[in-house]
Amino acid sequence: MKCSLLFLLTALVISDSIGESEAARILGAFYLNGKSHFMMIQPLLKGLAERGHQVYVLGHIPLKKPTPNYTDISLEGSVPGVFDSLSVTGALEFGEFFTVLSFFYTKANEMCQTVLEHPKVQNLIKSNDTFDLVITEVLGADCMNAFSYRFNAPIISIISSVMLPWGNDRVGNPDHPAYIPNYFLPYTHHMTFGQRLVNTVVTEVLKLGFYMFAELPTDEMLKKHFGKDVPPLSELKKRTSLILVNSHFSLNNPRPTVPGFIEVGGMHIQSNGTLPKVMYVYDVRHAAVLQVQN
Predict the structure, then answer these.
(1) How far apart are CA 124 and CA 274, in angstroms?
(2) CATH of the domain at 49
(3) pLDDT digit string (tens) for 207-256?
(4) Domain count, the chain
(5) In the chain, at which end, N or C, are there fewer CB atoms within 10 A of the end residue's CB?
């Protein structure tokens, strides 16, 4: 009896210590001041904090109500917010298309520069803090990935839309243009030969443009703030262990994926939420917004 009791107490102590060791120090680093994007990201960060992880969030939208294990490193007010600047239908127009590319290629770099120069970010770079994981967003310039180098930690990235053309390569996810439509084109997985040709050319051109106009300037920026030894983004992106994507095969085009690419569409929806009586759904095939009665 005494031996059994001793064994039980020993097992409880060991399991308790193991449970504590599973908690991680996580840094979420986001340069974009976009509420619609962060609505997708914040539930993940809060969920990690609720499960006992120590979560530090470098961003522009701090919590209004403090949450245990969740610490904001607020950059609020340092970068203008991105609100109501582009309509869904307008994104398909020729002029708006280049406006979107300009954001990904240049505006994002300007935001990165402002964020990296912020005193709180400079203090974080120079601090003696340690982190087990860095969470970033796949969007424009990947300047926040440099924190993976600074703290010698792997990267998990999250994207608030379907996958962008320059996001698949970092986890080796297949992106065959013959049946996987480009994010910027109104095609489905049923494409004609001409559409496949356009899809292929646009995909490769956008990847090249992102490398030339977003990655290369960011590499120089990171050397200034993280030191000359910081690897280029082409190497830093290889530290990505997982990408969480706001898509789902039931709504978006079905596609093959690798284990490091996980669709989490609807992750931001609260369990006690109710659908509105009237919903608006964007029909990619017909490039139109449809009104749906619930």
Answers:
(1) 40
(2) 3.40.50.2000
(3) 999 999 999 999 999 999 999 999 999 999 999 999 999 988 877 778 88
(4) 1
(5) N
Asked, for residue 127, whether it belongs to a domain, the answer is yes
At 278, phi and psi to the nearest 5?
Answer: -125, 125
Helices within 136-291 (DSSP H only): 146-151, 193-210, 216-226, 233-236
What are the residue ranges of helices labelled H in the chain? 2-21, 35-50, 94-102, 108-116, 119-126, 146-151, 193-210, 216-226, 233-236
Say if residue 6's pLDDT is above 50. no
The pTM score is 0.81
**155: containing domain:** 22-293
In a domain, 58, yes or no: yes
97 φ, ψ to 5°? Answer: -60, -45
163 burial via Cβ count (<10 Å: 0-12, 13-18, 19+): buried
Nearest to 41 by CA among 136, 133, 130, 181: 136
The answer as to whether 16 is a domain residue is: no
φ/ψ of residue 132, rounded to 5: -90, -20
Distance (Å, whole) CA 86 – CA 107: 14
Helix (H, G, I), strand (E, B), or coil: what is residue 10? helix
